[in-house]
Amino acid sequence: MNLAKKNIVITGAASGIGEALASHFVKLKANVFLADIDQPKLSLVAETLRCSYNVCDVANEEDVFALVNHAETELGQIDLFCSNAGILFKGEAVPLALDEEYWMKSWCVNVMSHVYAARHVLPQMIQRQSGYFLQIISAAALLSQIGAPAYSATKSAALSFAESLAISYGHEGIKVSAACPQYVATPMLGFEDTKLPRDAKNLISADEAALQIIDGVLQEKFLILTDSGLIKFFERKHKDYDQWIIGMQRLQNKIVHAKGEINLDNMYKFI
Ligand SMILES: NC(=O)c1ccc[n+]([C@@H]2O[C@H](COP(=O)([O-])OP(=O)(O)OC[C@H]3O[C@@H](n4cnc5c(N)ncnc54)[C@H](O)[C@@H]3O)[C@@H](O)[C@H]2O)c1
After folding, report:
1. How does pLDDT run across 9-40, given as a tens digit for each residue?
2. CA distance 55 to 128
3. 3-state SS class at 220
4. Is 59's C-beta closer than 6 angstroms to any atom of ligand 1?
5. How many domains does the chain have?
6. Separation CA 187–CA 178 (nearest Å)
């Protein structure tokens, strides 16, 4: 897909991967419309990139509907909708410890936001017989994130929804990419600085992630990975699920042994 002059909406654009994607879309001469729940950060990014924006909670369908209307008024038809906004709760460690509110919030932000976007953008795309959904999901959808049950479960559901969109609407000219990055140094993982730390093995910058994701979109790939090693673990999982669970249990033991508990800090060092 050639992105020049395409009308793109991107959520979660005030930070991390979303901000980096928006910046590269602009460099590729796309018309970019930004959305995020964080008004102060979003307005700064919008000013820097000279883009229009809408403050929006993607977990709320009315907000997503308003975002789509606002973007269509500013840009015209939406050619590519990028659902990037996502959340990860740091205190997830034990599956049942995470309370109902966090599970529901994870479900609404990480899954329903993709459904709401499709509900309000897909009909126009089907009418035109063309359109693109870029879903920023996670390697946790493929391989589970130790210490993050709600994140893993909801990202798996988001991947499944992306598959359904691609399967159901491919014949209507709809393309879908599901990006599954592994560890990216963004505020979500506690990195406020865009510079990578010295021990950055298995960790990439938001800029690098964005470039790899855009490369996948240019090739119109469904599954976009930002870590070449991931596919090997994914294949192993599918070859022998039981053995994969044993391997993950061993990895969890290794983390507990090294850190004394399961928490999400510096997880990238253990793969
Ligand atoms: N950082 C990683 O290692 C990593 C790895 C794989 C996948 N991802 C995914 O990439 C996406 C971007 O994450 P990031 O690492 O850039 O994180 P980030 O925290 O830097 O950015 C997330 C952005 O989403 C916005 N957001 C959160 N909830 C929202 C809501 N309800 N409505 C609108 N905006 C909302 C935040 O304000 C923030 O600007 C997420 O979906 C995340 O799950 C991240």
Report:
1. 999 999 999 999 999 999 999 999 999 999 99
2. 28
3. coil
4. yes
5. 1
6. 21
Distant-in-sequence, close-in-space partners of 128: CB < 8 Å, separation ≥ 6? 77, 173
pLDDT tens, position by position, 227-253: 888 999 899 999 999 999 999 999 988
Provide the whole-model pTM: 0.96
Which of ligand 1's atoms lies nearest the C-alpha of 63? 32
Inside any domain, residue 173: yes
Q: Using most ligand atoms within 8 A of CB, pick from 113, 186, 194 the residue to mutate for ligand 1.
A: 186
Residue 34 lies in a domain: yes
Beta carbon of 144 within 6 Å of any ligand 1 atom: no
Task: Establish if 152 belongs to a structural domain.
Answer: yes
Locate 184 and state its tokens: 């990216």
CA of 86 to the centre of ligand 1 (A): 4
Nearest CA, atom 14, ligand 1: 16
pLDDT tens per residue across span 67-109: 999 999 999 999 999 999 999 987 656 556 667 888 999 999 9
Mutate to test the pocket of ligand 1, among 37, 161, 188 (most ligand atoms within 8 A of CB): 188
